[in-house]
Amino acid sequence: MHQPPPASFCSSSSSSGGSSCECARVGVRVSALAPAAAPCPAPRRLPRPRQPEPPSRGTSTLLPARLGPWCSPTGSPAPLSCETGCGEGSWILVCRLLVPTQVSLLSMEEDIDTRKINNSFLRDHSYATEADIISTVEFNHTGELLATGDKGGRVVIFQREQESKNQVHRRGEYNVYSTFQSHEPEFDYLKSLEIEEKINKIRWLPQQNAAYFLLSTNDKTVKLWKVSERDKRPEGYNLKDEEGRLRDPATITTLRVPVLRPMDLMVEATPRRVFANAHTYHINSISVNSDYETYMSADDLRINLWNFEITNQSFNIVDIKPANMEELTEVITAAEFHPHHCNSFVYSSSKGTIRLCDMRASALCDRHSKFFEEPEDPSNRSFFSEIISSISDVKFSHSGRYIMTRDYLTVKVWDLNMENRPIETYQVHDYLRSKLCSLYENDCIFDKFECVWNGSDSVIMTGSYNNFFRMFDRNTKRDVTLEASRENSKPRAILKPRKVCVGGKRRKDEISVDSLDFSKKILHTAWHPSENIIAVAATNNLYIFQDKVN
Amino acid sequence: MEVQKEAQRIMTLSVWKMYHSRMQRGGLRLHRSLQLSLVMRSARELYLSAKVEAHEPEVPLPPVRSPDPRLHQSREAEAVVEAAPPDGEQPSPEPMDTREAPPAEETPARCAPRPAKVSRKRRNSSLSDGGDVGLVPSKKARLEEEGEGASAEVPDRLQPPPAQAEGAFPNLARVLQRRFSGLLNCSPAAPPTAPPACEAKPACRPADSMLNVLVRAVVAF
C-alpha cells in the first residue's frame, strides 16, 4: 500500500551552486523566538511607478519582456469619517490595480481564428487577458510586500508606500515593486500533457537579510525566488569602459580602483532553487515550516517534504494513493504547517475531513494524530452534498490553536483540541444551497474559495460571487458583505455593506440571488499580518482596502 | 419520472464535463474527476431507485426508450474519448467491481424494463447470478465490437464471456484489450491503455450497467 519514499529525483536545472558573494543562504536557522528582523535599512521610497524590468537573470528569455500588467493606483485614499461597519471600523478603497485597457481592447477586436491560435499552446501572452487573472495573493510576514501570481505564470510584487510628511494620505498604497515571469508553460512529453504555467500558490519566507525570498508553484514545479535590490554599481573598471566594452590595453595609462556609485534602484528577481519532478498530480498547496529550513508541497494524493537547500530529493510524508485507483474516494485539497510547531501539519480532504499529523510519529504520516470531521446534517443532504463538503482551503490561526476550513457554502473554525465538530460555523452564501444544480451546470460548484484570518485571529474573511467578499467577526458575531467592483470604487469611497435578498421582498439596496453574477468570483484574498489592510483579487483586478477608524 | 429525467440529465452533463476535462490545458484534474464521478454515482442511485419505484406496477416501455438519447450522445463522447491519449498516471488500469452497489440490486431493475427482449435479459441475469459483476462491462465490450454505428439493441449480441476463476477484472481487461486495441490509434501502450480509454466511455445498454460501468470506470482515473 505504501510506496517507499522516493530516494531521489532527476536533478533539475537549478543553478543552486550560488556564488559566494550572494547574500546568506536560505535556510540558515535563526532562533525561532527572534522576530523576523530586517537587518538592512528600510528600503527606500520608490520613484514613480517604474518601467517594466528586463528579464531577470535566470529567467527564460523565450518571450520578450512584456509590459507589467499593473498600472499605478487610481486615485488616492481618502480620509473618511467612520461609518457603521463590521465592528472594527469601515473599509475604504486604498488602491485598485488593473490591467491596461489597451490589452483588453486588443483581445476584444480579435477574430475567432486568432483567438483559437492564441488559446493553443505557447500562445502570445499579450492577447489573452485570461493570463492576467490573479490566481494567488499573499502578504509577506511584515506586510510590507504583497505578492500576486496570475494564470500567465507571472508574479507581481507590490511594496507599501512609505509614510512621509508631505503625503500623509499616500501611506497604505501599494506600488509595483517587481514583476517577473515565474513559470512558463511546459509540455510533458511522456504523458502528452501540457503543464499550465498558472501560479497556484505563493508563500513568503521570513526575511533574514536584505533580500526577500518567496516560493511560487504551478501544477508541477516549485521555485524559490530571490528578490533583491540593487542601488549601487561599480564604476571605474580598468579593462572595460562605462558601456562594458573592452578597452584597448595600449590606452590604459593609469590604474584605478573601481568605486561603487549610486544608481537608480533596480529590483532583480532570480530563481535560486527549482524543485521539480516530484509530483505526479497537481500541486495544490505549499507551506513553509516554522523551522525555515523545510517546506512541504501537496498534490492530490501525496505530500512531499523538501529542504530548501536540496532540490533533487524530497521526502514523501503522506501518501493516500490507493493500490487500486478505482478505490479512490478522497483527495488532498490543502495542507499547511503549524505556525509554531515544526513537527505538525494539517491536510484537508475532498470529503470534508481534516487530519493533523505529527512527523515525529513516523516517517510516513499516513496515520493521523487527529482527525477532524463533523457528522453530516441529514436534513441538508442533497444530490451534491459530497461535492460541497469538499474543503477548498485550510488555514491555521496565527496563534496555532485553531484551524479554519472553507467548503463551498460555509467557513468553519475548529479547535485543535476538539475533533468531533467545529466550534464555529459561518454561512457564507447559504442562499446558493437551492441553486446547486445550476451551479453544477455552470461549473461554479467546483470553485475553490480561500479563507484568511486577520492578524489577531478575531476576524475571518472569505470570498463569494458577484465580487462580494464576507468578513465574520468571531467575537461580536457580526458579519458584513462587501463588494469589490469598479463601479463602486471611487477614490474617496467607503465600502457600503451589501446584502443579498433571499426572500420575496427585495429592498432597495439589496440584490437578488438571481441577479448575482457568477462569473465574478473572489477566490483569493489576503489580510495584512498586523494591520487592517486587505487585498482582494477580483479576476484581473487587485483591490486593496484599508480599515479607517478615526 | 421527473426525477428520472433529472437524474439522466445530470448524468449526461457529467459525462460531457468528464470528456471535456480531458481536453483542457493542464491535463486531467483528479479532484474534479472524482467529484464528477460522485455526482454520477448519486445520479445513478437516484435514477435506479426512481426506476424501481416506477416499474413495480407498470409497463416498462418508457425506460426502454429513455436511454436512447443518452446512448446516442454518449456514443460521440465514446468515440472521441477512445482516441484520446491515455492518462499514464494510473498504474492499475483494471476496472473492478463496484464498491458499493451489489449486482443484486440491479438485477431486479434490469429484469423489469425489458420484457420485449426476454432472451437478453435472461442471459443477463444468469450471468449476474454467477455473481460476476464484471460481466456487465463485457456486455459493453461486446457491444463495441459490433461497431460504433450499431443500433441500440446491443444486448442481443451478448455472448457470455469465458468463465473466470479469479474475479472479474483480469477477464475484463483481456476482453477490453481485444475489443479496443484496434480502436485506439497511436497509443504507445495499447494493452494498459485499453481499459482506461474505454473506462471513460459510457456503455450503451442497458442503462443500469451503463451507469455501473461508468461510475466505476470514472473513479479509476
UniProtKB/TrEMBL annotation, chain A:
GO terms for molecular function: protein phosphatase regulator activity. The keyword Protease does not apply. InterPro entries: PP2A_PR55 (IPR000009), PP2A_PR55_CS (IPR018067), WD40/YVTN_repeat-like_dom_sf (IPR015943), WD40_repeat_dom_sf (IPR036322), WD40_rpt (IPR001680). Keywords: Repeat, WD repeat. It comes from the Eukaryota. Residues 1-21, 35-65 are annotated as: Disordered. Residues 11-20 have a biased composition (Low complexity). One of its GO terms (cellular component) is protein phosphatase type 2A complex. Belongs to the phosphatase 2A regulatory subunit B family. This is Serine/threonine-protein phosphatase 2A 55 kDa regulatory subunit B. The gene is LOC111156936.
UniProtKB/TrEMBL annotation, chain B:
It holds the Pfam family IER. InterPro entries: IER. Residues 67-78 have a biased composition (Basic and acidic residues). Residues 56-168 are annotated as: Disordered. It comes from the Eukaryota. Belongs to the IER family. This is Immediate early response gene 2 protein. It comes from Enhydra lutris kenyoni. The gene is LOC111162461.
